[in-house]
Write a structure and sequence with these properties.
This protein is an alpha+beta fold. The protein is built from nine helices and 39 strands. Strands 1-33-34-35-36 form a five-stranded mixed β-sheet, with no helix packed on it. Strands 2-39-38-37 form a four-stranded antiparallel β-sheet, with no helix packed on it. It has a four-stranded antiparallel β-sheet with strand order 3-4-5-6, with no helix packed on it. The protein is globular and about 70 Å long. The N and C termini lie far apart (61 Å). Bound molecules: calcium ion.
Length: 693
């Protein structure tokens, strides 16, 4: 009740125009105001907190209360949860930590030892984005597919189940578990890494027993899976052609879900096709249900209720795995239970969650693939060249990064605005010539999309980004703040009229949620990609976020090196006065070995292998920053024997470097030559710019 009262009080202070749009939020379940239990905090999954101690008037006194240093890891996207004054988070590959929320004192730590057992799944190179808390239990998933329930007091496991049947397939988990009544749901990802068929599984949250499974795309015709999806798969199969099951189909549920206790449903968002190129996957066309869709399923049984497909015949790596947030809105004079959704394809969807009917869809970012979304049919009206026909390369916005990616959107019932970290980044799509029926996925967890390389004379404009406050009723932006580079951190809104977001530049910022005016910021000393949370401990409100950058340089002038960036969990409170120690990144220049003789033929072999195996973590073309060490100055590739022990011998596996035992000695030597050539080119470029490395 207290939360509702505070929320109403905060709403009174807003401008009249805003208040007119605002409706009473749906009744919230019994989650204490000072807790944060699920990825989006509670069942509405809106990344909104009713706490108001830190607000637009007091935020100037916000300061660092405590911090926790984190060793180098590719995993910097995790968002914590909080309950009863304890902050729980995954660090690295699902190593769960419990901290006293007021002091930062470590209470317990649980290590599922992912590096020892993940095998080829480590090649996916990501860590978990979130965990869940419910009724004294912390739930986490691991990269290679385990779902684990831990006693929140002690960190001791209560149960653990493997949710991916085949350890050799390309499926892996990065998304958070979701509590759905008495069940806990988990999906998986991997549609770029092999022939996978997406599904979501529901387990009894007390015992870990499988309750139901729902496949998102049809398997081989005539084969029943015994899954909740069996009854709709025949209908889905009629929208596919060719031998799609050999390619897996895709449609992985790798991030967003939302439990709707009012209607007894769960909504799941499905991913892109496997492979992206529909001419390979389903050569005769078709909608390819249920790719790029939101599905409403019965929460208890997993049975199909309705679906909305945003991109029929998905062809671009568009997906609907971005946030699904629940609220009520007055649209056309009628109050409706709705879900809000801003997926990669650039349109903001408002969908009636009772009927699945599309109520609104306008572009929130640059998109060039559709004329519009037809509200009557719910289908997009695609532009003529959107499917890059006839082998002609076409520049399309957005590209695979999406107009909105994995960085969390938040929705404030107090302002009636959704806060979207948006990206404007195009991609040149090419349908490669050749014999497509014989197309095969590359070996285990190698990047494989079924689209061709762009011609060298075609360029993609440099990416930009912006924080957009979107009015889902008017379907237009209320305010927009341009942000540096391509990617930003996720957003969190509070009833204190605040919006928090971390930046690639290292600044953690609080805005006035109604106007977008910047009110406060903190220098985190490294880029931020994760999403903040807020909670109370010992009666005081805290804001916490994981600072750390993973990925290639962001186009904003910053380079956050894998080895030297200071990753930390940061917690802020009013009056917090702690200071971070000074940060010196040291030299990030590549290292050359003048005696190394480059062989152009070997460089070419290495370049090809690098593009499909190494890019996701070490960056396109070998760069500094983020997901893995900068190979241009790493000691390993200096010596072929040591390099081979790392790449195919797996000696750094427990540190997160996957083993590539399927690469031949010639391919590994090629990689060494390519890396050395990149180091030499980078040094030459630095000299040319007059910089003495
Ligand atoms: Ca994808």
């Amino acid at each position: 009740m207290a939360g509702r009262v505070k929320l109403a009080a905060a709403a009174i202070g807003l401008a009249a125009a805003t208040a007119a749009m605002t409706v009473e939020p749906p009744a919230r379940p019994a989650i204490p105001d000072g807790d944060w239990h699920s990825y989006g905090r509670g069942w509405t999954e809106d990344h909104f907190s009713p706490l108001t101690e830190i607000n637009d008037r007091t935020v100037s006194r916000l300061g660092l209360a405590w911090s926790h240093d984190i060793d180098p890891t590719p995993s910097v996207l995790t968002q914590p949860v909080a309950a009863d004054g304890v902050l729980y988070t995954a660090i690295g590959y699902s190593v769960i930590h419990a901290f006293d929320g007021a002091t930062g004192k470590l209470l317990w730590r649980y290590d599922p030892e992912v590096g020892k057992v993940a095998g080829i799944k480590l090649r996916a190179g990501w860590g978990p984005r979130g965990i869940a808390y419910h009724d004294g239990t912390v739930f986490t998933a691991t990269l290679e597919g385990r779902l684990i329930a831990l006693d929140a007091k002690t960190g001791k496991p209560r149960w653990s189940v493997q949710t991916i049947d085949d350890p050799e397939n390309a499926l892996y988990i990065t998304g958070p578990p979701y509590i759905v009544g008495d069940l806990v749901l988990i999906g998986n990802g991997g549609a770029e890494y092999g022939p996978v068929r997406g599904y979501v599984s529901a387990y009894d949250r007390r015992t870990g027993k499988l309750a139901w499974r729902f496949y998102t795309v049809p398997g081989k015709p005539g084969v029943k899976d015994g899954a909740a999806s069996d009854e709709v798969m025949e209908k889905a199969a009629s929208t596919w052609t060719g031998e799609w099951w050999k390619h897996g189909g895709g449609g992985t549920v790798w991030q967003a879900m939302a439990y709707d206790p009012q209607l007894g449903r769960v909504y799941i968002g499905t991913g892109n096709g496997s492979p992206w190129n529909q001419r390979i996957r389903s050569p005769g066309g078709g909608d390819n249900l249920f790719l790029a869709s939101i599905l409403a399923l019965d929460a208890k049984t997993g049975r199909y209720i309705w679906h909305y497909q945003a991109n029929p015949g998905e062809n671009w790596d568009y997906n609907n795995t971005m946030d699904i947030q629940l609220t009520d809105l007055v649209i056309g004079g009628q109050r409706r239970p709705v879900l809000l959704h801003a997926p990669k394809n650039g349109f903001f969807y408002v969908i009636d969650r009772e009927t699945g009917k599309l109520l609104g869809a306008e572009a929130f970012g640059k998109q060039t693939w559709a004329e519009r979304i037809d509200l009557a049919s719910g289908r997009p009206v695609e532009k003529l060249d959107a499917r890059y026909p006839g082998g002609k390369p076409v520049l399309i916005f957005p590209g695979p990064y999406g107009a909105h990616g994995v960085a969390t959107m938040s929705y404030s019932p107090a302002t009636g605005l959704a806060y979207i970290p948006t990206t404007e980044a195009g991609n040149i799509y090419v349908d490669p010539p050749g014999d497509l029926p014989s197309w095969r996925h590359l070996p285990q967890l190698a990047l494989s999309t079924g689209t061709g390389a762009p011609p060298p004379d075609m360029a993609v404009p440099p990416p930009t980004s912006a924080l957009v406050a979107w009015d889902p009723v008017a379907q237009k932006p209320r305010w927009t703040v341009p942000t540096a580079g391509r990617l930003q951190g996720g957003t969190m809104a509070t009833a204190g009229n605040l919006l928090f977001q971390g930046r690639s530049t290292g600044r953690f910022i609080a805005y006035a949620a109604d106007t977008g005016r910047e009110l406060w910021s903190f220098d985190a000393q490294t880029g931020i990609q994760a999403s903040p949370v807020t909670y109370t401990a010992k009666g005081r409100q805290y804001v916490a976020i994981l600072a750390g950058w993973r990925g290639s340089p962001n186009g904003d002038g910053t380079v956050w090196d894998y080895r030297t960036q200071p990753r930390r969990l940061l917690a802020f409170a009013l009056g917090g006065a702690r200071k971070l120690p000074p940060y010196d990144p040291g030299s990030l220049d590549p290292v050359d070995d003048p005696d190394f003789r480059l062989d152009p033929a070997k460089v070419a072999i290495g370049r090809a292998v690098y593009g499909t195996r190494c890019t996701v973590c070490h960056g396109a073309g070998v760069v500094a920053g983020g997901g893995a060490p900068d190979l241009r100055r790493a000691p390993g590739p200096m010596d072929l024997e040591a390099f081979t022990a790392i790449v195919s011998g797996g000696v750094l596996q427990e540190a997160g470097m996957p083993r590539f035992q399927d690469l031949s000695p010639a391919q590994i030597e090629g990689l060494q030559h390519f890396i050395r050539s990149r180091a030499r080119e980078s040094l030459a470029a630095a000299h040319q710019q007059g910089r003495q490395p």
